[in-house]
Design goal:
Distance between the termini: 26 Å
Helix content: over 70%
Radius of gyration: 17 Å
Number of strands: 0
Length: 128
């Protein structure tokens, strides 16, 4: 798969996740059978993070000169998101369905690493 196609898919995925969390916040908490937060500022900041990642993926797809920096930020952000989500879900005994988003963040970091640092193939000469 080409890097541009992977980044297009990543932009759509992260944008959709951000839109769902921002636009359907009450339904999200109802589905998880959780009390909505008293103060929505932290939730809205956390929910806007996937939307910002979607914009970063789209920018990395359109601007190859900015791609290494944006991908490094996306890798770091997804690794932090994976650790935080899995840690919070485990610590607070939230519904186990939320482990899926933590695992997905880790998988996205791994997939971005393949775009950020592609391994040379037999067809390409290795840098000397």
């Amino acid at each position: 798969m080409t890097p541009e196609r992977l980044l297009r898919i990543a932009a759509a995925y992260h944008g959709l996740m951000g839109a769902v969390l921002l636009l359907l916040a009450q339904d999200f908490f109802t589905f998880l059978k959780l009390e909505p937060p008293r103060h929505w500022l932290f939730y809205m900041l956390a929910a806007s993070t996937p939307a910002a990642a979607g914009f970063a993926c789209d920018a990395a797809r359109r601007r190859p000169d900015l791609r290494p920096g944006l991908l490094f930020g996306l890798i770091a952000g997804n690794l932090v998101a994976a650790v935080v989500i899995i840690g919070v879900v485990t610590w607070t005994q939230m519904p186990t369905v939320l482990y899926g988003s933590g695992i997905a963040a880790g998988l996205w970091a791994w997939m971005f690493w393949n775009v950020y640092s592609p391994e040379p193939t037999d067809e390409e000469p290795a840098p000397s």
